[in-house]
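The protein record quoted for completeness.
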Amino acid sequence: MAQDLRTLRLAAFDAHSRDFLQEARRRRDGEDRLARREIESLAGLADQVVRSLGDWRDRAARLDFALRAPLDLPIAARALTETVFDDMLEPEATRVFAAAIDLAL
């Protein structure tokens, strides 16, 4: 089951990466190298965000009286993507980033 989910997430990441590359080609002929580097950067940023959220979860777990519920990583990552990165990134890049987040979780 976990492998099936990972396969689906990887397929989504690949599909969104292809869309991003097509959009880069449409905007500027011959920008494949730049777009591929940006896909790698978006994936690296997603990894870093998930690691940071894991750190937040671990720090919050040490709280006693203040903690209402543990941090749910997928919910937190989705909220961060929707409230911060959606406004910051181009739509195609946001989809690549969100797919990379899913892979990193």
